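Exercise 7.
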Amino acid sequence: MSIEFLLTSLIVVVSPGTGVLYTLATGLSRGTRASIVAAFGCTLGIVPHIAAAITGLAAVLHTSALAFEILRYLGVAYLLWMAWRTLKEHGALTVDENLAPISASRTIVRGILLNVLNPKLSIFFFAFLPQFVSPTDPAVLSRMLTLSAVFMLMTFAVFVVYGAFAASMRRMVVSNPGVLVWMRRTFAGAFAALGAQLAFSARP
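Solution. The predicted structure, written as tokens, is:
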């Protein structure tokens, strides 16, 4: 496994996106344990995209305008819904020490949906993974599966760090209503901006 793959993967993983945003919001609102669950859900959301890239389904998505547009606008709708829920204090960033806990399964499903409903991830892996696999390698499938597993482990680890950092700031947020309002608006705006970016992005 090349250092180039590890460095490139790290850059991609630490870059702010929907998964990072969701994990940060969960850490702030629910604490460290919930942020780890959110990180796990976001990591699971990568699996369908990796599977699509390995099996070649991403090529269909890349060539089919209809398939791409359907998945893209489902993703846009979900991001805007997350923005609305966050802004209205019932979504990803509801900080209250007496707040009823959200089940781990629900947190995981939200994380999965955020990544599954992003068609660019399939195309990213379709273009990314082959760069580090030799076409003459007799075990291409095994090699791609190994690289994918490493990418997922790196994603989970980095997201856990993001979530732990956010959770460490939770006490300050809970005790300061002004900070809470600012954070809620910031996260809602970020979800909306990501949705807009996905809506107006052209097919590769």
